[in-house]
Specification:
This protein has two domains: about 100 residues, no CATH class; about 110 residues, no CATH class. About 45% of the residues lie in helices and about 15% in strands. It is built from six helices and six strands. The longest helix is centred in the middle third of the chain and has 23 residues. The two termini are about 20 Å apart.
């Protein structure tokens, strides 16, 4: 959904396509962007980027990064000969060396030595422990068992446009936040002046109450969902 889709849904929800909305399309666009800015504080859908590994990685060319969750090595990307052998290959060694078992035992001993060395290294220094300098856009990474050539960074992006919201859950959240903010603004507009002797009354007070209640409910839902890997509906 792009910005126009959100504006059209909000207008139809509040007017039914029959009455005129006091807020024009430009004003509704500002409300959607304001709601998206608020949603950015809770948004937790992650993305991945691959970068050249070093102890200090400059991420200035990635302004969309809001926060970094984890850093991963890439298998086979300059990490040394530290992969576990194919089980079928080990079975062949055992079959062809039934009596001596030299080759398979030799591989097992070398792998046990490697695993022990890695365990010792990770005990004294945590591999891929990182710290992100948000202001300087620098990522500092610790390597306890050798520096790879490439890393994969898992991060939460900062949203700049409603079209970047790709999951149904967050599209629904953005729409509901935008609708609630619109109700609050419309409610304040329609209750700015009240005619006590009028033959009719508008729905300004009702819209204002509905908008505030919906905002409170949504913010509480988002606050609770931030403690989870995936938000709850």
């Amino acid at each position: 959904m792009d910005l126009k889709d959100y504006v059209d849904k909000i207008k139809f929800q509040l007017t039914g396509g029959v009455i005129e909305c006091e807020i024009n399309d430009k004003g509704l666009e500002k409300i959607v962007l304001m709601a998206m800015e608020e949603m950015n504080r809770y948004y937790n859908v992650t993305d991945l980027i691959q970068v050249k590994a070093s102890s200090c990685i400059d991420l200035m060319e990635y302004p969309e990064i809001e926060s970094i969750l984890s850093v991963h090595r890439i298998a086979g990307a300059g990490n040394g000969d530290n992969s576990i052998a194919d089980p079928a290959y080990v079975s062949q060694l055992q079959m062809y060396n039934t009596y001596s078992g030299y080759y398979s035992n030799d591989w097992i001993y070398r792998y046990l030595n490697y695993a022990t060395n890695q365990q010792i290294a990770n005990t004294s220094s945590t591999d891929l422990d990182f710290r992100y300098d948000e202001l300087g856009k620098k990522l500092y990474v610790n390597y306890s068992v050798g520096t790879p050539s490439q890393l994969v960074i898992e991060f939460v992006p900062k949203l700049h446009d409603p079209s970047e919201v790709v999951t149904n859950f967050w599209q629904d959240i953005l729409y509901k936040l935008s609708l609630a903010h619109t109700k609050v603004i419309l409610g304040r507009i329609r209750t700015r002046y009240v005619q006590s002797n009028a033959l009719w009354t508008d729905d300004g007070a009702t819209l204002l109450a509905e908008g505030n209640d919906e905002l409170s409910t949504l913010r509480e839902q988002l606050r609770v969902a931030t403690d989870l890997v995936l938000p709850i509906d």
